[in-house]
Design a protein that fits this description.
Layout (H helix, E strand, L loop, with lengths): L1 H16 L14 H8 L17 H10 L5 H21 L2 H6 L2 H18 L3 H13 L14 H21 L15 H5 L30 H12 L7 E5 L1 H7 L7 H5 L2 H9 L11 H6 L1 H4 L2 E5 L1 H6 L6 E3 L2 E3 L12 H14 L5 H12 L3 H12 L1
Parallel strand pairs: 1-2
Antiparallel strand pairs: 1-3, 3-4
Length: 385
């Protein structure tokens, strides 16, 4: 059931982003699965693993689907294996890697290959070839954060396409390097300074450590949003607003004057202003209209690093707003959302994406209760056709 919920969460993100300009004219990239690979991250509401600092859902599910499963059990198993591989590698990547490289892209190629290899039924050796070749071309530089571009979504698509192609190639005998991670000219040597150990969930699967995102903003802004919501509920969210959080949240989200939707989603100042204005941090709260309306409130938000909060990161994404501190954030395993919460998110995003309300019920039936992947593929074709 955990895998089904993550699949539904990804479907919700695709629904909400279906009319985004990234699809371009007409059919976008040519198929529903290709478009879905671009759309899963657009709203910044995709799931996230904290210590690996990456988003598995928008990579793993389209990679598994494009490999052609017809049985839901096969799709879900591939999803779990893809999450495992992607997160395991991601947790071994260090702070130097995260400063320069986009882990969803670098580790994502490996996770996508694992998911596709699982659907294709590759044996242990061929799966190793697929993962090795996918990792050999891993990449994705963070420089795109300095421009108002769609490169982040292209990274996700590239990871999906690369992993799938690597698995298809392995299926026909294209061999790959087994030591691509730890080898002298491998991924760790090229992209890290102090790599850690591959992640392991012990007795369980790493998918159980993945957080859901209830708010339409960068995950680094969520702790501040959550703390502001707690203060608002208690009637204590009053200007001026003082946000204290971890260093990476400032690196990615210290934007007092966002100009575009994506900049607003990466703005701690805008995130707190959204909540102070009585909003819910939904997609509508990050539009150009919202950016203009909330300028006076944003001007009353100051941000700073708290070394103690930084010391707990990335195991815990925390923040303090006007003295109220949260160590973990809504959607984390320590503060989980319910299945009903995920369905409510789906309904919100189905509406935002311009679909009829009944499409949410259709998605729930196909993903949470169905055993035939055809119902899901037809749904995506209808939404993105």
């Amino acid at each position: 059931m955990r895998a089904r919920r993550h699949l539904l969460d990804w479907v919700a993100c695709v629904a909400g982003a279906r009319n985004h300009p990234i699809r371009g004219r007409g059919r976008g990239l040519g198929t529903a699965f290709a478009d879905a690979a671009l759309l899963g991250n657009v709203l910044e509401m995709d799931d996230v693993h904290r210590t690996a600092l990456l988003h598995p859902g928008p990579v793993i599910w389209p990679a598994a689907l494009v490999a052609g499963p017809t049985d839901m059990a096969v799709l879900l198993e591939a999803g779990v294996r893809g999450y495992e591989a992607m997160i395991a590698v991601g947790t071994a990547l260090d702070a130097h890697h995260y400063a320069q490289w986009h882990p969803t892209a670098t580790a994502g190629t490996i996770g996508a290959a694992a998911a596709a290899a699982s659907v294709l039924g590759l044996n242990r050796e061929a799966t190793g070839w697929a993962l090795g070749n996918a990792a050999s071309v891993a990449g994705g530089l963070w420089h795109m954060r300095h421009d108002d571009v769609q490169t982040k979504q292209w990274h996700v698509y590239h990871a999906v396409a690369t992993g799938h192609t690597a698995a298809r190639a392995a299926a026909v005998g294209i061999t790959g390097p087994a030591a691509i991670l730890e080898g002298p000219q491998g991924l760790f040597a090229a992209m890290t300074r102090a790599p850690g150990k591959l992640g392991s969930a012990g007795e369980g699967w790493l998918i159980g450590e993945v957080s859901f995102k209830p708010f339409a903003a960068c995950r680094h802004a969520h702790p501040a949003i959550d703390a502001a919501l707690e203060l608002r509920a208690a009637g204590r969210l009053n200007a001026p607003f003082r946000v204290e959080t971890y260093a990476d949240a400032l690196t990615f989200c210290d934007r007092p004057d966002p100009r575009t939707e994506i900049e607003a989603k990466f703005s701690l100042q805008h995130a707190v202003a959204v909540i102070a204005a009585g909003r819910q941090a939904e997609p509508t709260d990050f539009t150009p209209e919202a950016i203009a309306a909330l300028a006076p409130l944003r001007a009353q938000v100051t941000v700073a690093e708290d070394p103690a909060i930084s010391a707990r990161y990335p195991a815990h994404f925390g923040a303090r707003v006007n003295g109220l501190e949260l160590i973990d954030t809504r959607g984390d395993p320590e503060r989980p959302v319910s299945e009903a919460d995920i369905v409510a998110k789906l309904r919100c995003l189905v509406t935002w994406g311009g679909l009829a309300p009944g499409e949410a019920d259709r998605a729930v039936a196909a993903v949470l209760h169905g055993d035939d992947v055809t119902a899901l593929t037809m749904l995506l074709e209808d939404w993105l056709g």
